């Protein structure tokens, strides 16, 4: 599976989002963190900004909904132009129905798990998804330190994906940088959200290329990748 780097605009300049999107045009997706100040203690942006951003860039949008009632709101983000929509299983009332609705509207359906949420109870849901997001920090704020204790969870998740023979992307989000991306790739992640590591760099586009090269180098020899 190809390595993907998704810069998080949470670390970008919100007054210049169109320019910040152009600065990382070599990225696979733009990661858009939607927070409602209820599910997480922070407030960011919503549907109107996603609509505007979708018009301003050719890079597909990967919307991560850290919100309550995603069953109600997630479909609106597909309509706003998101190519991938991630909801939190902790907040979803009917995750299978929601994943199917997101897919039916034409986007990739993704489910996120907070650090304390185990993957095992959701094994039967995996075929309904296009991507699974393992949070490697507590959701809500950018710039946090990577939680190494999530690496075994990433490995267990990759094992479940392989067990069922699924073409499911495995994304990690939180503290991903040059210092941590190789460990994530070795554990089984193939989609990497990077905020400060990209937008805090002097050249964001070069930061994307460098992170991709690091992850690809590890993935070529990782045991999980060699099984495919």
TrEMBL record:
Gene Ontology molecular function: D-ribulose-phosphate 3-epimerase activity; metal ion binding
GO cellular component terms attached to this protein's record: cytoplasm
Protease listed as a keyword: no
Keywords annotated in UniProt: Carbohydrate metabolism, Cobalt, Isomerase, Manganese, Metal-binding, Zinc
This enzyme's EC code(s): 5.1.3.1
Record field: catalytic activity: D-ribulose 5-phosphate = D-xylulose 5-phosphate
Cofactor note: Binds 1 divalent metal cation per subunit.
Amino-acid positions noted as binding a divalent metal cation in the UniProt annotation, renumbered to this chain: 31, 33, 64, 173
UniProt cross-references to CDD domains, sorted A to Z: RPE
Active site: 33, 173
GO biological process, one term: pentose catabolic process
Annotated substrate binding sites: 8, 64, 140-143, 173-175, 195-196
Cofactor or coenzyme needed: Mn(2+); Fe(2+); Co(2+); Zn(2+)
Keyword Isomerase attributed: yes
Highest taxon listed in the record's lineage: Bacteria
Functional summary from the UniProt entry: Catalyzes the reversible epimerization of D-ribulose 5-phosphate to D-xylulose 5-phosphate.
Family per similarity comment: Belongs to the ribulose-phosphate 3-epimerase family.
Entries under NCBIfam families matching the protein: PRK05581.1-4 (NF004076), rpe (TIGR01163)
Protein name (record): Ribulose-phosphate 3-epimerase
Organism: Streptomyces muensis
